[in-house]
């Protein structure tokens, strides 16, 4: 990769959401914002090779995207409105960051997560507009076809435009009703960064995890007493703390039980534990993110994987299943059950999820590991083959391939 290609890739990771948000705020149209941002990055490929990489790539891209948006609006209007043209050009100054509550990316998330949209559409649109994920990556996150996801996002943008949904952070009284979709979107943005689903991306994308944490902190400043906001922040911090130990120097995924716990970020773990303790002390009934944060707190409290309190983990998953009886939660619970009651009991639970999760790589990987532990090598090898076929992440593929080959 050349220096320019590396700079553009880095800018896309770090600046995509900022550019889209700035243009969307200015022109109030998500289609225009997305297309203008894409055109700005395409222009950068040619211009930066000739002119050199600018000192502030984000400012360059934002200014270019604004001009691309103006060009498109001019073409679509096809009229000689000198006054409007002068206003657009006069406002086209350099990009300037805004304060926390005025953060353009936070505004963009709230417009993507408007209650007029179905929940899945809110999350998918946020992944696209804020996370900068490709359509295949978003489709994999939802376990649907790419064309299906493309139609959902197109309809969502059209509904926002037709309903003239305002580009702003909601008023204080409207925030609680809007925040659930925002948290769900941020959680998926974080997950994509912590273990990217695409085969052509870095296994770990710190730009996405850092942005998800930053925006969750902003939402916490708006809703400091919301237990689920605090829970999601704690969950992100406790998960991000393990990032340095997540992938080996050779590029292979390292499972939680095999990670070097000395490489974990002690400050992030301490903050995450403090937030979990605060929520427990509140006496309020925990929501989904608070329970997930508590599960991660149990894992990160143990100095060695063998010291993990699996009975507490299973008990927390039992709470979570009552709130969220999804197949993926049941699958994660089965992993904990395997440590407490053995792989045979866990496998029975996993096999009951086949109809719902057979096409999900984590299901096949979990089943393969349980079969391996039971000595059923041929069946384990077949399950590993399916998991490798379904996995998109290069680090995960490398890990699964090694475990399969060890069966020989």
Structural notes for this entry:
This protein has helices at 3-27, 30-51, 57-77, 82-90, 104-112, 119-129, 135-142, 146-162, 175-194, 206-222, 227-240, 266-282, 288-301, 310-323, 327-341, 343-351, 354-357, 361-373, 377-390, 394-406. Among the domains are: 3-90, Rna Polymerase Sigma Factor, Chain: A (Orthogonal Bundle); 99-193, no CATH class; 325-408, Serine Threonine Protein Phosphatase 5, Tetratricopeptide repeat (Alpha Horseshoe). The two termini are 37 Å apart. By secondary structure, the chain is mostly helical. Belongs to the sigma-70 factor family. ECF subfamily. Pfam families: DUF6596 (PF20239), Sigma70_r2 (PF04542), Sigma70_r4_2 (PF08281). Residues 17-78 form the RNA polymerase sigma-70 region domain. Residues 178-278 form the DUF6596 domain.
Provide the fold topology:
Layout: H1 3-27, H2 30-51, H3 57-77, H4 82-90, H5 104-112, H6 119-129, H7 135-142, H8 146-162, H9 175-194, H10 206-222, H11 227-240, H12 266-282, H13 288-301, H14 310-323, H15 327-341, H16 343-351, H17 354-357, H18 361-373, H19 377-390, H20 394-406
